[in-house]
C-alpha cells in the first residue's frame, strides 16, 4: 500500500475571472522508501502538486490518502497534525533563519512539536550527524557553504523523522559535487529509514538517482502510478 495516494485529484485557481486548471485528475502512488522526481515546465503544476502532497493545500476534487487514511479537505485538524508530525520540507532557497545557528534551525520543528529539551538536543545532534555536520552546529547560515546550508535544511526536514519529505529543486544552484552529496544523502535516508521523497526538479543530473520520474504537462501527470 502506498504511503501517499492521490486519486483523480484536481485543483483550479480563479484569477481575474479566469479559471486556471492547475491539476487535472492526477493519480499518484508514492511507496515507502521511494524517491520520485516530478519534472515539467514552469507553470505545469509542480508547486501545486507539492502543496497538495505536503498537506499545505487541498484539492477541489478527488481523493488523498496518507498511509491509507483518507484525508478529506474539510479535516484541517488532522491534516495539520499529520503535516507537522509526518512531513518534512526542503526548499530551494534553504529557508533557514539567518540569525539562528544550524543547531537552532534544526531544533525549531521539534520545539514547535513540544518535544522536551533533552530529547531535542539528542535528536538535533543525530540529525546533524546524519548530514555530516555534527561539528558545525554552532555556525549561522552565512558561515556555511551553499551545500552545507542545504544539508542543514535536510537535517531540519528529517529531525522529526518524517515519513515523507517534500523537496522543491533541492539541488538548484549547487555545484555538481555538492548536488551529488545531497542526492546521495536522500538515497541513504530513503534506503535506511524508508523515508519517501517527492522532489520537483529541473536538474537533469538528479534524475538517474531517483527511483522514477513523473512528468507534469499542463496539469496532467504521466507515470504517477507504478506499473507493476
Ligand atoms: P509550476 O510549479 O510547475 O511552475 P504551479 O503549480 O506553480 O506550476 O502553477 C500551475 C498553474 O497554476 C500556473 O498556470 C500558475 O500560473 C497557476 N497558479 C499557481 N498558483 C496560483 C495562484 N495562487 N493563483 C492563481 N493561479 C495560480
Ligand atoms: P553514484 O551513482 O556512484 O552515486 P554520484 O552520486 O557521485 O555517483 O553521481 C555521479 C555523477 O553525477 C557525479 O559526477 C555528480 O556530479 C553527478 N550528480 C549526481 N547527482 C547529482 C545531482 N543531484 N545533481 C547534480 N549532479 C549530480
Question: How large a portion of the residues is in β-strands, by DSSP E?
Answer: 25-35%
The radius of gyration over CA amounts to 17 Å
**How much helix is in the residues?**
25-40%
Class per helix and strand makeup: alpha/beta
> Termini separation (Å)?
13 Å
What does this structure look like?
Keywords: Antibiotic resistance, ATP-binding, Cell membrane, Membrane, Nucleotide-binding, Transmembrane, Transmembrane helix, Transport. This is ATP-binding cassette domain-containing protein. By secondary structure, the protein is an alpha/beta fold. It has 6 helices and 10 strands, in the order βββαββαβαααβαβββ. The protein has a 6-stranded mixed sheet with strand order 6-7-8-3-9-10. A 4-stranded antiparallel sheet has the order 2-1-4-5, with helices on one face. α3 (about 100-115) packs across α4, α4 crosses α5 and α5 (about 145-160) runs parallel beside α6 (about 175-195). It is globular, with a radius of gyration of 17 Å. The mean pLDDT is about 90. One adenosine-5'-diphosphate binds near residues 13, 40 and 42. One adenosine-5'-diphosphate (ADP) binds near residues 179, 184 and 205.
Amino acid at each position: 500500500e502506498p504511503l501517499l495516494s492521490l486519486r483523480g485529484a484536481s485543483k483550479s485557481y480563479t484569477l481575474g475571472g479566469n479559471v486556471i486548471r492547475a491539476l487535472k485528475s492526477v493519480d499518484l502512488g508514492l511507496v515507502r522508501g521511494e524517491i520520485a522526481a516530478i519534472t515539467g515546465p514552469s507553470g505545469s503544476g509542480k508547486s501545486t502538486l507539492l502543496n497538495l502532497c505536503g498537506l499545505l493545500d487541498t484539492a477541489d476534487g478527488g481523493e488523498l490518502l496518507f498511509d491509507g487514511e483518507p484525508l478529506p479537505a474539510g479535516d484541517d485538524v488532522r491534516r495539520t497534525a499529520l503535516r507537522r508530525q509526518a512531513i518534512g520540507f526542503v526548499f530551494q532557497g534553504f529557508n533557514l533563519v539567518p540569525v539562528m545557528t544550524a543547531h537552532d534551525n534544526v531544533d525549531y520543528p521539534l520545539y514547535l512539536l513540544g518535544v522536551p529539551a533533552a530529547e531535542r538536543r539528542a535528536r538535533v545532534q543525530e540529525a546533524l550527524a546524519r548530514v555530516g555536520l555534527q561539528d558545525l552546529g554552532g555556525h549561522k547560515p552565512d558561515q556555511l557553504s551553499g551545500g552545507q546550508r542545504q544539508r542543514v535544511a535536510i537535517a531540519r526536514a528529517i529531525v522529526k523523522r518524517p515519513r515523507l519529505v517534500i523537496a522543491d529543486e533541492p539541488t538548484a544552484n549547487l555545484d555538481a559535487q555538492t548536488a551529488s552529496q545531497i542526492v546521495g544523502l536522500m538515497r541513504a535516508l530513503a534506503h535506511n529509514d524508508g523515508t519517501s521523497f517527492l522532489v520537483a526538479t529541473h536538474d537533469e543530473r538528479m534524475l538517474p538517482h531517483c527511483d522514477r520520474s513523473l512528468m507534469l504537462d499542463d496539469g496532467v501527470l504521466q507515470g504517477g502510478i507504478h506499473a507493476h
